[in-house]
Amino acid sequence: MTNKSDIFEIIYSLRSMRRLKKDPVPIEMIEKILDAGIQAPSGINSQPWAFVVITDPEKKKFFGERYDFWLKNRFGDGLLEPDTSTKYGRTIRSALYLSEHMHEAPVILMVLGKRDWPFNVKEQDRVGKAPPSYGSIYPCVQNILLAARALGLGASLTTMHQMFEDEIHEYYKIPTDHGLVATIPIGFPSGKFGPVSREPLETKIHFEEWSN
Fold this sequence. Notes:
By secondary structure, the protein is α+β, with helices and mostly antiparallel strands. The chain has helices at 4-13, 27-37, 57-75, 87-101, 134-150, 165-171, and strands at residues 49-54, 107-114, 154-155, 178-187. Helix 2 crosses helix 5 and helix 3 (57-75) packs antiparallel against helix 4 (87-101). It starts with a helix and ends in a 25-residue tail after the last strand.
């Protein structure tokens, strides 16, 4: 059983691992990660999550080509010659690497949620498709990322699928009553896990009311 200090070590060393080895990931590891994912809480215990696990080269190629196209279409010149002397530039470079090598990730995991209108959307305003219940799905996504880290697997949360979700639904035969929340490439990392850089907590926290 994981103890408290192990959990904090995993949290404090969890980072987006965008450079992945091509070595296959055993299906048993993926199932273990997803089983951790579905232990997450959800609104009224609705458990609205579903998963599409993609390992077939052609099916990964379909996703990877569109992901790469839309990343470059969306950010354009902002991806050209990033200044790798800065933290931001290194992040851009690694994001571009992932985009161009997405199809090589051993596993592309799609995390979906059953569509459900939020309470604040009135009945008469409910036009078109309801969004998935993000508040119920993201705890599951975080569990997946933490479980992958615990098993020594690299993963990164991506959302560029928004630009071509209709194509995804058609190609992977996903029913329209589910919406895609996150796509997570998973594999054994080329880099190392380690401490992450974050702004100090005292710059983010406010007690009782918003204050300096």
